[in-house]
Amino acid sequence: MDLLFLGTSSGAPTRARNVSGLGLLEDSGKGWYLIDCGEATQHQLLRTPLTLHGLRAIFITHVHGDHCYGLPGLLASAGMAGRQEPLDIIAPTAIEGWVRATLEMSQSWLPYELNFHPTESLKEWHSRLLRVEATRLSHRVPSWAYTFTETRPDPRLNVEKLDHDGVPRGPLWGELMRGHNVEHAGRFLRSEDYLLFTRSPQRIVIGGDNDCPELLRDACQNAQLLVHEATYTQAVADAGKANFGHSTAATVAAFAESIQMPNLVLMHFSARYQSAPNRGQSIEDIRAEAGQHYSGQLILAEDLMRLRLNKTGQVERVERHVRYDARASKTNQPDG
Amino acid sequence: MDLLFLGTSSGAPTRARNVSGLGLLEDSGKGWYLIDCGEATQHQLLRTPLTLHGLRAIFITHVHGDHCYGLPGLLASAGMAGRQEPLDIIAPTAIEGWVRATLEMSQSWLPYELNFHPTESLKEWHSRLLRVEATRLSHRVPSWAYTFTETRPDPRLNVEKLDHDGVPRGPLWGELMRGHNVEHAGRFLRSEDYLLFTRSPQRIVIGGDNDCPELLRDACQNAQLLVHEATYTQAVADAGKANFGHSTAATVAAFAESIQMPNLVLMHFSARYQSAPNRGQSIEDIRAEAGQHYSGQLILAEDLMRLRLNKTGQVERVERHVRYDARASKTNQPDG
């Protein structure tokens, strides 16, 4: 699984960082998932290889504008680009009414269905390759983390059982291997009964805004990667300069250390932390503070940074894939 | 008055052009007005000298998303940047309910007042330097043009009248000159009664989406500049490849020629027209077609292009003003 960061600023965009948006790419490279959709997330996509046709589902962590104001525009653009496949949106209940009211207000009619799943009552959500669960966090408004777990980690056929059950070699085996259930000689054969998985599943936990990382202890079991906000340093929070509801670099790092999380990616930085020092502060303050509490692999996310969680549980940086062709030239969209 | 184009694409953003947004700057250089606010208009502002503190009013031409989806984020960011001055928004009625519902859904509370003025019933709107009127256009939804007229074109004092009325020289004259009404010796003196204007007022007409430029004939009287959409060429429209509701380069240009409009700026281009030719089409097709029908000064708008209407009615290009300092460093905003 790859992560492609579309926005890593908290509250408002800066010239270097957009508001929240994060792409999670399937191993296959075809489909992807969007976690949060701040304003101009669709604009960021134009600078990546991701397309609105490949989008399989959207997950929203909470209702604050910097995490969802980009939804109506992105959905409308997907329609203009000719998307017809239904789209699942997993989001707090209030989001559905607002998205539908927004599309109606602007008289935008989508050529595809929106299927909303309220996060409040989510048991789990599945695609062919992934299982997603939600964990309630602590913030000024209800906020959730989403845990993405691989469901088919490098399967191989259970040849012994296939032979034992008298399933003949050939195309049937291929179907079962690809995860499809089949009928044969009056029998119903379930793919999962004939597959063996050869390694632990990959698991990534992606938090929404949250002032209590400890709430993620269970969700983080068997995860190789935690992606979490670190809006401020502890020094700024202690000086009373920070709003309630957010984590500091220190608290997230100490939590990750306490559970021996091997990889930690921080994001959602206050605009006071820029690359170049400003009023004595810079993004390096976040890195330094987290580094004091955490001994695993620490990464500070940047817009358009792409990370790969490989099959041995390591996280590595992937070169940026910039699409130099204009998105528009690929579509034949009507105009608004 | 200067115009600073923030978005010149129709429907959806491309890598080169954002969706609609246009800044109109007062001669004084301090205040500015925003016409339309597509998604990521606030992001475009980060690349200009314009600030959310200097914004005097917002005018929305119609409810389509590419003209208004950027409003909630821009208003929220103005709040985070500490704006306290009330803000006038002149927009179709449906916009007010949607903006207020959006802010409530996302639990965003602005530290300043929003004053909505429905375009449907607008007589005129005034600032100290400008008068704005709306003209109904023809589109798939109700759409308007806004006409901006200077109210104080280079005033000088009517000394003869001041002397005749016995108004003593001194600070009183200064007040009247600056446009303030004053009381003196029990008399109420209106500034405008003692001023002479030394040239014709500047007037700019800015159209929303519209398939009938002819509707702007009256509004364009005594205007030096018309800014209008030209979504397609006539060839594309005739081939049935274009949606209803828009103008072609040919129809706008022919209209501008028929009223002897001295300056015409086209914008809101279909994404099929890129700088580099693509499938045999480019933005030069728009220029060529308009040029066949119009003999005045023709300009095709680009994102971040800045134009100045000078006092003799000429339009000239102004060098780009890029703010290299990060916007965020100027504010001390809370985080979302």
TrEMBL record, chains A, B:
Zn(2+) 2 binds at residues 66-67, 209, 268. It catalyses: Endonucleolytic cleavage of RNA, removing extra 3' nucleotides from tRNA precursor, generating 3' termini of tRNAs. A 3'-hydroxy group is left at the tRNA terminus and a 5'-phosphoryl group is left at the trailer molecule. The keyword Hydrolase applies. GO terms for molecular function: 3'-tRNA processing endoribonuclease activity; zinc ion binding. Signal peptide: none annotated. PANTHER family: ZINC PHOSPHODIESTERASE ELAC PROTEIN 1. Homodimer. HAMAP family: RNase_Z_BN. Belongs to the RNase Z family. This is Ribonuclease Z. It comes from Stutzerimonas xanthomarina DSM 18231. The gene is rnz.
